[in-house]
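debug: dumping io for the single-chain case to check the tokenizer round-trip. Nothing else runs in this session.
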Amino acid sequence: MKKFSKVDTAIKVNISSSWIIYITKNHEDAQDIHRFAMTQKAMMPEGWYYTVQTHQVMEDCRVPEFFHNHDYWMTVIEHNNGDWNKPSKYDLYIVE
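debug: decoded output
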């Protein structure tokens, strides 16, 4: 069973999108999270914007620089909270 730890930080990426980001130490864990996120996407009601990406963390502005270029992987969910007029949110999780 994996442990998910929420990091108390917020990065402003753009003015409209909300973000849920999972940082992992390996590609397999990132892919597992990606597959789970895709099942959530399939259940989203109309009006939700929801995309899922998984890739290695290089110099990505969506995560703190501490994670850049250290062989970490990330699964990124970009969404709109169901409505583009709602305030954006940023949630970062470390998966161990």
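debug: round-trip ok. The helical segments are 27-42.
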